[in-house]
Amino acid sequence: MDLRTDCLVAGRWVRAASGATDPVTDPATDQPIAEVPSLAREEVAAAVDAAWDAWPAWRRRTAADRAAIVARLGELLLREAEPLAALITREQGKPLA
Fold first, then answer.
1. How confident is the model at residue 3, as a pLDDT?
2. pTM across the whole model
3. CA pseudo-torsion sign 31, 35, 38, 39
């Protein structure tokens, strides 16, 4: 699994304009997992605006079209289930059962 740490905004992967990042650590071991962009308030607002701007196009899609997209997402999640489970449990500091 390719771990992307940038932010997906309006279909593009972006970093903070300042270059600032925040660490993501495993709380059980305090070991670093990744560095993620530390967006400024304005950058977060732009990301929220982009999501709202995308909403009308999503609403215009048919139910069947939206279902196909969500089904594809489900397939991708299942394909990457093991690495995603390992990453999420590491981020939360919990054991993987």
1. 87
2. 0.81
3. negative
